[in-house]
């Protein structure tokens, strides 16, 4: 069996960028597993404090430089602080198994001590020392940091030691104002603010490969005022503020609007600035004793002698604790993440995947394992066939949704049961099916003054004893081309006119915009599509919603029996198809054309409850998607996915995934509605561990 190894944990890390209220947990690690050293405080408020971090005077509870402060003096929920002055508040510590990240909140902008010339210096945090463990996260998307500067004619530079890691210049011309700044979100130009990504320190400003520090803090901000402008006027237009923040924070409209307005100071809520930090173990005398778990690995860091611990692929937990890295049961994850759509067997640090007994095929794709005894095909040619539709055995489709795959063509064609219509697309989201006619359109020529045509051969035919799940979509139209003819589309309940229109021509109107000798059935005009279907020689009419399925009859009538020598075409087509010049030309030349016109039609479909009775009674008897006396619940029988909902139609029901909750897929299958956001976040975590292994 093929083996697939994957690392998985800490979806909560990526969830932070999606929701405003944060709860940090330890992923799938069981509650009984310790997260810190014995007899040590492991939480502050609702934030967990895993080793190597710790709280209090007991130095055995944390590694050097990883001691945090739990502030209980605010009178509200305790705050976990990184620095003594309370500037940096820790909101969460996560992803220890893939290197580790810390989500923090800096309270306020970077304070700059300005001299008489408007120049000055400040520091991001006294708690981030140059020789300490913490750094701004700069190497992984989407958690990077950026510099944001507001003010007129000033330049801000962020230094890490002697290396420049970010710099931008904010200018103000005569047109710079609040509205302009809000619109472009400081994307550049003379708008009174600017932004710049903070990069990973490499060479210092003197070209040395090892970053030299002349300061005790890790990130210092230098502010320089540009000459030639009125400093007082500039300050009045835009007060100078410097922020180091998570990239994307300033894109929040409420944040940028509050910061860029000058009528009042920004709110306290706005000044809660989110930032991502990474960390490394530095100046520890015994490297081998730090990564304690048997299934951990050590990666070299960016600082001198620094490194970080991570769990090996296939394990999750805390690599800094003995037995902290636990085996991941990959078989509990979604097949979209593991790539195993067959039978999954968990192993230590990995898993095995294969097709279950009695099946064969490709277990790495959805539906790849096929029952060797009764195969249900999920495609025909290049058209997917999602359940409730199916091909072959009756167990492959819901009653009334059988399709045929005709292999006489290359690629094969998917057909409705009567074979006259080819299926080119099925939409579960809209409950529609797009079909095209296979044969030519047949003209009405010399006929009686009026006639009614049964549409059994014009539209998909089904036996009388079979409930027909289809009806015409209102996105179709009735089209009549020719002279002096009237057509009416009729449903099953009398009277039930679904659509109708009439065409008119002058008696001797046979001119030719199509060229010499080519009849246009009386149509004149310029090369402009819609102009040819306003009633003169051609008409179109919208299709009304039908409550009783497919139309029953087409009633055709000559308005002038003396002028019926010209051919008249009457057909249903998807709205908008008839407008192109080429389509109009072929039909209006008159006569029977040998080349087939592929006329598209859009059908709506509904699913009926699995009990006998007329289709019209299917919904009227159970208007709330409930089986009533039959003890049938459509959610269980029709909408099989947990994250789906049943919707009432005209004659039956349709199912929809709960898209407001982020679910998409096939609601007619068990587990068919998938949370795409969760799948994305799981994939993001896999990427983080892969990048950690690559970077270290």
TrEMBL record:
Residue ranges of every copy of the EGF-like domain listed in the record: 330-370, 624-674
Main location: membrane
GO molecular function: calcium ion binding; polysaccharide binding
Residues spanning the membrane: none
Domain EGF-like calcium-binding, first and last residues per copy: 327-370
Pfam families tied to this protein: GUB_WAK_bind
Keywords: Disulfide bond, Signal
Bilayer topology term: Single-pass membrane protein
Coiled-coil segments on the chain, per record: none
Protein's UniProt keywords contain Transcription regulation: no
InterPro entries: EGF, EGF-like_Ca-bd_dom, EGF-type_Asp/Asn_hydroxyl_site, EGF_Ca-bd_CS, WAK_GUB
One GO CC annotation: membrane
Subcellular location: Membrane
Signal sequence extent: 1-31
PANTHER family: OSJNBA0016N04.9 PROTEIN (PTHR33491)
Entry protein name: EGF-like domain-containing protein
Source organism (scientific name): Triticum turgidum subsp. durum
């Amino acid at each position: 069996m093929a083996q697939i190894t994957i690392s998985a944990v800490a979806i909560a890390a990526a969830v932070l960028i999606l929701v405003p209220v944060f709860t940090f947990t330890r992923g799938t690690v069981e509650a009984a597993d310790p997260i810190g050293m014995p007899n040590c405080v492991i939480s502050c408020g609702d934030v967990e404090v895993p080793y190597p971090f710790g709280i209090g005077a007991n130095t055995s509870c944390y590694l050097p430089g990883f001691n945090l402060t739990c502030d209980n003096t605010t009178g509200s929920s305790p705050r976990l602080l990184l620095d003594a002055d309370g500037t940096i508040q820790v909101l969460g510590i996560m992803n220890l198994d893939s290197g580790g990240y810390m989500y923090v909140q800096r309270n306020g902008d970077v304070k700059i001590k300005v001299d008489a010339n408007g120049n000055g210096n400040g520091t991001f945090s006294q708690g981030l020392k140059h020789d300490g463990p913490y750094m701004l996260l700069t190497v992984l998307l989407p958690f990077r940091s950026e510099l944001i500067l507001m003010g007129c004619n000033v330049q801000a530079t962020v230094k890490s030691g002697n290396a420049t890691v970010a710099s931008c210049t904010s200018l103000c011309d005569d047109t710079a104002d609040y509205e302009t700044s809000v619109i472009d979100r400081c994307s550049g130009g003379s708008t009174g603010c600017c932004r710049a990504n903070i990069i990973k320190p490499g060479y210092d400003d003197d070209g040395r490969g090892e970053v030299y520090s002349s300061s005790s803090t890790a990130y210092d901000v230098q502010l320089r005022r540009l000459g030639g402008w009125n400093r007082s006027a500039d300050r009045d237009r835009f007060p100078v503020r410097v922020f180091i923040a998570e990239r994307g924070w300033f894109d929040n409209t409420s944040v940028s609007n509050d910061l860029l307005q000058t009528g009042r100071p920004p709110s306290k809520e706005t000044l809660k600035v989110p930032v991502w930090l990474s960390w490394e173990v530095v100046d520890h005398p015994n490297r081998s004793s730090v990564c304690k778990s048997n299934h951990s690995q050590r990666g070299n860091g960016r600082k001198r002698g620094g490194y970080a611990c991570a769990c090996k692929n296939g394990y999750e937990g805390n690599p800094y604790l003995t037995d902290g890295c636990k085996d991941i049961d990959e078989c509990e994850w979604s097949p979209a993440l593991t790539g195993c759509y067959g039978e999954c067997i968990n192993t230590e640090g990995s898993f095995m995947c294969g097709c279950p007994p009695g099946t064969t095929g490709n277990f790495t794709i959805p539906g790849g394992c096929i029952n060797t005894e009764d195969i249900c095909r999920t495609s025909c040619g290049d058209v997917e066939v999602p359940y409730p539709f199916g091909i072959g055995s009756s167990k492959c489709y819901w009653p009334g949704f059988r399709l045929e795959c005709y292999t006489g063509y290359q690629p094969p064609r998917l057909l409705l049961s009567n074979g006259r219509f080819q299926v080119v697309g099925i939409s579960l989201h809209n409950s529609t099916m797009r079909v095209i006619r296979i044969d030519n359109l047949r003209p009405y020529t010399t006929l009686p003054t009026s006639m009614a045509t049964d549409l059994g051969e014009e539209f998909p035919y089904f036996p009388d004893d079979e409930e027909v799940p289809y009806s015409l979509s209102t996105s179709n139209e009735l089209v009549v081309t020719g002279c002096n003819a009237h057509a009416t589309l009729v449903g099953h309940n009398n009277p039930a006119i679904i659509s109708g229109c009439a065409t008119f021509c002058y008696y001797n109107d046979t001119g030719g915009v199509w060229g010499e000798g080519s009849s246009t059935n009386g149509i004149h005009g310029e090369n402009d599509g819609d102009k040819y279907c306003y009633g003169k020689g051609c008409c179109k009419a919208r299709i009304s919603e039908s409550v009783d399925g497919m139309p029953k009859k087409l009633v055709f009538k000559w308005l002038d029996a003396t002028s019926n020598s010209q051919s008249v075409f009457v057909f249903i087509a998807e709205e908008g198809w008839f407008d192109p010049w080429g389509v109009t030309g072929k039909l209006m030349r008159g006569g029977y054309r040998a080349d087939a016109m592929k006329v598209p039609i859009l059908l709506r479909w509904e699913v009926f409850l699995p009990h006998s009775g007329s289709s019209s009674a299917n919904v009227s008897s159970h208007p709330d998607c409930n089986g009533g006396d039959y003890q049938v619940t459509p959610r269980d029988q029709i909408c099989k996915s947990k994250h789906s909902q049943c919707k009432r139609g005209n004659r039956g029901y349709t199912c929809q995934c709960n898209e407001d909750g982020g679910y998409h897929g096939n609601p007619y299958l068990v587990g068919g509605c998938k949370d795409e956001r969760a799948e994305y976040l799981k994939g993001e975590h896999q990427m983080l561990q892969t990048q950690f292994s690559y970077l270290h």
